[in-house]
Structure prediction request, 626 residues.
Amino acid sequence: MSNINRRHFLTLAGSTLAATALGFPMLSFGASKHVVIVGGGIGGATAAKYIRMADASIEVTIIEPNKTYYTCFLSNEVLGGGRDIKSIQFGYDGLKKRGINVIHDLVTAIEPDTRKVKISSGKTIRYDACIVSPGVSFNWDAIEGYDAKVAEKLPHAWKAGAQTALLHDQIRAMPDGGKVIIVAPPNPFRCPPGPYERASQIAWYLKNNKPKSKIIILDNKAKFSKMGLFTAGWERHYGYNTNNSMIEWISGSGGGKVTRIDAKNMTAVADVDFEGDVINVIPPQKAGKIAFVADLVDKKGWCPVNQGTFESTRHKDIYVVGDASVASPLPKSGYAASSEAKVCAAAIVAKFNGKDAPVPSYVNTCYSILTPDDAISVAMVYRMGDKGKIIKVEGSGGLTPTDATDVMRKREVTYAHSWFKNITHDTFG
Amino acid sequence: MKYKMLTRLFMLLVSSLISTVTFAATPSATMLANSCAGCHGTNGSSVGPASPTIAGISVDYFIETMDAYKKDERPSTIMTRIARGYTDEEIKLMAEFFAKQPFVRQPQTFDTRLAKKGKKIHKKYCEKCHEDGGTSSEDDAGILAGQWEPYVRFSMEDFTSGTRTMEKKMKKKMKSLQKDHGDAGVDALIHYYSSFE
Prediction:
């Protein structure tokens, strides 16, 4: 025991010495603390900004391969035709202006013992704390016949950008009377209401442009997020539960469990074959790749963390925020990622200043837009429970009331757009 | 000997870190306020187009508003659901935090002619409580000048339709405003508030 402690102590002391002697290979940091952030999505970028806001003496470096980030949230509105894809695109100039270093490269390894991050150019970067915000990756072997290569033709569009544009193009090129198949993923996955908002948005486009067309959602679940509100919305706008419904949802037990994709014949194979003109497969998910490389995942493929600080329970001084972390009951949403990043940032700043981790508080707010005049939402406030686990604050939160008026649901659209502008500005601005 | 002491020190440090990570207390004002920023903007100044800026408003107005949401006495989309997540103490902390932040305005589109008309209307019916052209939060008045237009419009709709209650003084003024200028007067007022940058 004391041997391990001694070694650990010496490693810590040694690495501090090494850091002082060698400095940072690309930028000089002097004696200040250095936080390296792996991944510049909502979680990573928000953490960077909020660390700098709380303590400008801390050096922050984001390592992110892409120069532009496309938000997943509101990418469905691009499919519905109500939003230009450029409006969901964000760069890193705002963060650079805050003195945050941004390196566009890929992290290939994280070494917890020496507290170093390796990037593909061969350089190594030292950290005092490393925040990993890798988002999700796909289980490509879960559905036979569907992998990264096939996704270039049958898009998942679950990471926004080129995939969103591809799916949008395919829906626009589809004939009137065609069929769109959406294969929804099993839990847990990024953006739980997302597949159903997507169906709503595509339905909006089809209703106005190709009204004879249909959407079939093949789901392996028995129920889904905001289900009652979605189906009521589909009844209001898309003839749901009538013979002429534009949207059909097939549950797992109802024959919606897809086992194979036959891309050549444009068929999703469940209990029976479903042919489609457009097939959108949202594959089962796990933490982003670097989380696996850095040994941050549990058996289920997600990253266990101290839910009060988001420090990995597997490796010291490495923190995991956003979709990749195990933070349930917080959902895997953009707002949750932002909220987690702020809690994590505050914990790291406190630690560097010799203070205890602050008492956390978390919020999630999530809108789904059904038509340009009709949106629904879910919101919740969370706090730390007795057992070190995040819990919902009793009596708080919940869904848009089922008896909400048309006027109020129209306001929710306006507030959804406001949510988008503010969260992206709060992240990248 | 030295090494033993170092080990002990290190152990002490580790155990103190572990033992202090308990979460029974109230979060700090900053911790609470930061979680509002996703909708209301960093430090409470919204970049639009609808969620209101909550920076710079008075402590009492903030508390009163959150209380009204909690009790479902004020119409809202999600704020009723959010407000119920906080204790009175937490709401007070947030109120104090946002009261200290500057109300940062963004340019909005407005009709110059209507804004001019609205300015006169404001002076006659509103200025007494919403001082300095609606820029002031004195006497717990909501800041109107430069507030986001859709939010102001929704609020006016709720006041005039009766789903949101007005204080006696405001009710009286609103009645005479409506009588003298009708809905067009309210519209002009909204344009005036949107004209602030």
About this structure: Chain B touches chain A at residues 3, 6-7, 10-11, 17, 20-21, 23-28, 30-32, 34-42, 46-51, 75, 77-78, 81-82, 84-86, 90, 148, 150, 154 (CB under 8 Å).
